[in-house]
What we know:
The chain is an all-alpha fold and 232 residues long. The chain is 80% helix and 0% strand.
Amino acid sequence: MLGVIVNTVAVVLGSLLGLGGKGLIPQKLSNAVMTGLGLCVVAIGISGIIEEGNTLITIGAMVIGAIIGTLLNIDGALNRLGQRLETKTPHDGKTSIAQGFVTASLLFCVGAMTIVGSLNAGLYGDNDILFAKSLLDLISSTMLSAALGIGVMFAAVMVLLFQGLIVLLAGFLQPILTDMAIVEITRAGSLLILGLGLNMLDLTKIKVADYLPAIVIAPLICWIVSWINSLL
Length: 232
C-alpha cells in the first residue's frame, strides 16, 4: 500500500500548493488557465479514445452505464454532496466542488498506470509505476486545484479507495483486469474525461457523473465476451 499512500499524499500536497497560489492569480489569468486546462482535458480524452479497442464494447458500456447512472442520479447525488461540503469548507463560490472532485477523480483514477501500477503493487510489491504516477499527479493536482478549487483535494479519497481496493484485491482482480479490459476501461473513462473538458470550456453541460458506471461495466462486458469465446 506504500505506493497508494504516496500517491494520495501527492494529490493532497499538490492541491494545497495550487490552492495556496490561487489567490495570487488575477481573475483574468485564472479564466485563461481554466480554458487552457479545459483544452488539455479534451486532448487527454481524445488520446485515450483513439486507443485501439472494441467499439461495440465501448458503446455497450456507455449505454448501460448511462442507464444505471441516470436511474441512480449519481450526478445529482454528487452535486448535493458538493453543496453540503461547500457550506462546511472554505470555498470561493466561483467553482463547483463536485466538478473539481469528479474531474480530478477521473484524471487520477482512469488509465493503465493506475490499474497496472496497483496490480503490480498488490501482486509483486512493485510500487515503481505508482511512484511515477504520484509525481505526475502532484503536478496535475497543483494546476487543477488552482483552476477548479478545493474539490480536487477531495479526489485524494478516491485515489486511496480505488487504488487501495485494486492492491488489496489484486489476486482476485487479475483474471478480470486483462489487457483488453484495461483498454476498454481507459476508453470509457476517456469519453467521460472528454465530456468534462467540453464542460470546462462551457461548450456542453453533460452530466458526466451519470456515466461513471460505464467504467465498471466495460471490464464486465470484456469478461462476458471472453467467456463466450471460450465456449465456442
